[in-house]
Amino acid sequence: MRPILRLLSFLTITACGFAQQAVDVVQIAPKRVDSKLRLPGELLPYQTVDIYARVAGYVEEVLVDKGSVVKMGQLLARLSAPELNAQRAEAEAKILAIESQRAEAEAKLLALQATYENLQAASHTPGAVSSNELILAKQAMEGARAVISVHANAAKAAAASVDALKKLESYLLVSAPFDGTITERLVHPGALAGAGSGGRSVPMLRLEQHSRLRLVVPVPETAVSGISNGARVAFVVSAYPDETFFGLVARIPGSLDPKTRSMSVELDVNNPNGHLGPGMYPEVQWAVHSARAAFIVPSTSLVMTTERMFVIRVVGNRAQYVTVSRGAAEAGQVEVFGKLAAGDAIIKRATDEIRDGAQVIVKK
Q: Going by fewer Cβ within 10 Å, which terminus of the chain is more open, N or C?
């Protein structure tokens, strides 16, 4: 009799002779669900540059090698270009020659000016100086002034040429444009830098910034609605499986790759200790924010048949099938979308054996 008594504890015989099944229910309420996707990413240097010689010259000395950590402005290599030195010496000699000619012209101007002033004083005595002599003296003086002006302009042009050559000579000292790490060394002393076969230059060094990295994450189209600038995102790398790193969303392109239907979002990652390196492939824990509110039910409340997917709502002690669509699931809970309302009582452990319209008793 004990098994029969146990069965009777779950069933109640109604006056009509039908059995009412006792069920557990949950009260539902709308909730915006956030979930996480595990997406592959790639770490890249924050800045990368191939360092070229800005003028053609022979490499005298390379002061760094692969793996060297350098500071902005630090000297990396020295080049030599004897022809530049010769051109600068020639330009400086030209300046001296022009200055000498200018000094000579200024001395001549002083003499002509004195002659003109004497003639002008003598012209006050009638018949002492003809007007033509005075005019010729004035024109000679003005011509001397013009020659001095020409020499002055020539001196400025020669000085500018010297400055330009000095600037080119400064390019023989190759320095770092930013703090970083040398990742490639492609020249050695004696090599000709700044010119290559076919007129194409060959880089001397490659410099990368590793203290700060870019994390590129291809975010699927279905998850782009949750992207926001400045969001803090966690990720892990296989080199340090027990450590979690973080990056901040910094650049959102706003367009999808038509081939992969994903958006390449960039995160900024601080890397002061150098644990992370470009080329690593992290696993990114990407937060996905639901675009609309959903109802959360236990996964056991969802019934799937070949014809439909539904939950069972209890209304007036009767079972009522409600067709739903399924959303994200996590930890035994699943989000569903359908014609549901806040406060609805949904059977916790549903099955299609509970017929639509069947009478049920809600357990207290």
A: C
